[in-house]
User: Fold these one by one.
Assistant:
Number 1:
Amino acid sequence: MHRLLDIPLGSSTGMPASRLSLQRVRHAYAEHLAVDDVSLEVMPGEVVCLLGPSGCGKTTLLRIAAGLERLQHGELRLGEEMLDEAEGHHVPPEKRGVGLAFQEAALFPHLSVLENVAFGLDNLPPSRRRARAMQWLEQLGMAARADTYPHMLSGGQQQRVALARALAPEPRLMLLDEPFSSLDARLREQIRDDTLHALKRVGAGTLLVTHDPEEAMFMADRIALMREGRVVQWGTPYQLYCQPQTPFVVTFFGAVNEWVGEVREAKVMTPAGVVAAPALAEGSRARVMVRPEALRVTHDGALMERPVGDVGIFARVVMAKLLGRSSLLHLAVPDEKGQEVHWHAQVPGVFLPRAGQSVALQLEPSQCFAFPA
Ligand SMILES: Nc1ncnc2c1ncn2[C@@H]1O[C@H](COP(=O)(O)OP(=O)(O)OP(=O)(O)O)[C@@H](O)[C@H]1O
């Protein structure tokens, strides 16, 4: 169950939440350019996720924001304060008033769980320090282990204590690197939810690194999707998912059905129906991407209800699998030459037609995208 505690607001760092701004940041390890001209901002109270495949530069950017890597090029500000300039002014990590939680929990081994969380609360009187640390341990489900030591905890438990320690001073900025990665699936959902509400209550801006698109969609107000050191798209989860600017952005959020066809009157004909291609030149080749949930599947009979003139498209069910919250249908869909292509449809709830059965298809246009081939 969720434990949303009434933790009093007000930063014990004594610093108001501020806007983080990274401008034109570039970072190389020897010859290797890990971050290439990245600019982004995190507003107070906003959760921004750095999302992208392994090695794309997410952690490097977070370490720069934390002050653990010296800035090589560009500018880093928190509110009005310049935190870092290439070959110039550098505010060390402990003077930045930011909360950090990294993949590996890095708790102080000689301090108890409670002492670890109370460590950063030295601005508070001792009696309030203990109470505040206990409240955060309770929020993250670790209050019962307050007197134990880090080596007596599992990796996931250590991660929860590290999160409590980072959140307890209610810093003006939180920097989190894959903070839920060593939690099992069920616990991860709960701790994510608790952390999101805690971050929103504290009102600090948050920069969170993840390679998991679902986690980014769950946590973020805005997402910076990265590839090979660059931000390839920056916007709200809705913008990235529903208005992707490149095929990479589409596929990063999950496998899609693909088709290459010719643009005719700003449309492309696919085996499952027509997809709009308003931005593409007449007669050019288009790469069409259709998310599995864009395929609306009904039993043939339902077609009787459809308006006259709405020509039906039919497919043969190859197999149907229940995934839990949705069903995945493997379909053989005939193309214009009568050859069958293999497409996937994801349908909400339990929908399990038999193999060999004929079903009718319609396309949901908002989840179909056309790019130059
Ligand atoms: N200390 C280092 N020395 C040399 N190269 C490094 C160092 N740290 C990172 N790199 C390289 O820089 C690139 C970016 O690494 P970074 O850790 O920022 O990526 P990431 O997106 O966080 O990856 P992951 O999701 O796997 O943690 C990678 O190619 C990595 O090998």
Number 2:
Amino acid sequence: MALAYDPHFIGSENAETTSPSPLVLTQDELKKIAAYKAVEFVKSGMVVGLGTGSTSKHAVDRIGELLRQGILTDIVGIPTSKRTHEQALSLDIPLSDLETHPVLDLAIDGADEVDPDMNLVKGRGGSLLREKMIECVSKKFVVIVDESKLVDYIGGSGLAMPVEIVPFCWKFTAHMLQSLFQEADCVAKLRTLSENGEPYVTDNSNYIIDLYFKKDIGDLKSAGDAILRLPGVVEHGLFLGMATTLIVAGKLGVTVKNKS
Ligand SMILES: O=C[C@H](O)[C@H](O)[C@H](O)COP(=O)(O)O
């Protein structure tokens, strides 16, 4: 049986706290706990980047709830995807964009992988470009994950590292990407829709190539730079040195780690 969410379960910053109950929390409950903890960083009057994905969804819901209760006021949200835009609209969160607010006070978002230096892989939900544009101009970027997202090294989950590319001659770009990481035994795959096998199209009308590595890709900055040098590439899902705070919810409690 899953435990009902208890906001008082969360402990203080930089401290590991234990759950008052031996019952096992579901992964979604852990995501919610991390998200609610992150929303404690949101103060009235802030411009806040609203992330995308199943973890961020809880944070956006919570911001909407606190606005409705009048606990938060004068919040401006900058959504990182069309999906989050719709969610925020449904919650009456006032929205704006980077052209009006080129600097954000805070952004909260999930991640697909987090390494010990707080480098991230993002974009398995398809929203990496808008996320990166918004999160790289946020004074504080709070990353929220359940403990399953922690890896020893980037690529360590064996799951995809997404790259957003233009649709024009996508097979060529996929081939170039795969060739770039031959030494890591990379396989590049076009992301497709499970329903009909058609290419997945991002909010920016692009495609996504998912890179799978069998070996460590080595220096992450060099890897990211090499990807960006390929002309058909728009952006990649490596978010290096961007996270300022990491909130991890695990079976034993919540950890808040700040960038050193
Ligand atoms: O494109 C999706 C985003 O980068 C998500 O933040 C990331 O995939 C994590 O998503 P979730 O919280 O659903 O695991």
